[in-house]
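Possible regression after last week's pipeline update?

I re-ran a chain I had predicted before the update to compare outputs. Posting the input and the new output here so someone can diff against the archived version. Not blocking, just want to make sure nothing changed silently.
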Amino acid sequence: MRFSALAVLAAAFAGATNALPVIEKRGNSTASDDLGLSSVQGLNVTYSSTYNASLPNVVIFATGGTIAGSSSSNTDTTGYQAGVVGVAALVQSVPELLGIANVVGSQISNIGSQDMNATIVLKMAKLANEILCSEGSNVDGLVITHGTDTAEETLYFNGPANLLQAVTLAGNPDARDRGAMIVLNDRIGSAYYTIKTNANTLETFRALEQGYLGMFLSSKAVFYYPPVQPTFKKTFDITNVTSLPMVDVLYGHQDFDYLLIRAAVADGAKGIVIAGTGAGSQTTPSMPDIDALIAKGFPVVASSKVNVGAVVPDNDKSSFIRSGFLNPVKSRMQLQLALACGYSLSEIRSSFEDVLYNYLH
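New output (post-update):
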């Protein structure tokens, strides 16, 4: 089982109707029954369309967030309430979905994305692997609807179109072997590289250095490149992982010292990511504590609060771990997974540094 299944993150929805908490079945033969999903343990099926053998099969994991938000105004980008609309209502708001895919919806959660946590992420990862990767699976793709505040960690406005495009992409054979993708505003991005770049504007999710994978034209996905996985992506076997350890992100700044580091360790952190200045630089007063932790086998990863660019590995393997192209929150997620899988300090360092180091040396 690998934490690398296809996931397409759709975006926001305003002026929506109230949540529908019960399963919605259309017709006698439903997609969840025909695909055998009703028997998947832990999968809370709350919506299932009529099964059509000529259409691709797509599962939607609804988590809440901005796409499940409601507002008194259909142009409100600041005053909406996130996480109040259920997956059935989302599908019903985009009736075109039923002409492009057999849709099965599961209400994983209905929360604002600021409350997304490791328990929900692990649950989705394991369900996604079982649904997509199990022997004989007939599911072509998975869509995860997610709020924008923390989508780049799991992983808007104009929500119905985004949801339609996400389902279209998930059922498209040309989308295979590209890893997890994010669909926003007619753009297709790699979830590995895409970040949120603005708190308020519509076109906020971008990979500023790496660019987009493709776009939508006339409701059709157009890719710029053949299928390829992100160069630096690391996969982890989470079969036996039941929880993710605490990892704190500390924000670097002038006069940053050892006190925050010591407080994080004392509070139970099993690893630390420092959003350093520039290309991950650390202040001189903090270095003795960082080096002492590394010497004890405690992982300290240096990323950059700039969010774009690389923290480059060097020959010094006795100091902090360099994050490469991962920003602080994505570095945190990778460190959590590595720790949960029992990686040693040297294995953690390798997972972050080796590929980029080999390019440069």
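Follow-up from reviewer: compared with the archived run. DSSP finds nine helices and 16 strands in the chain. Marking as no regression found.
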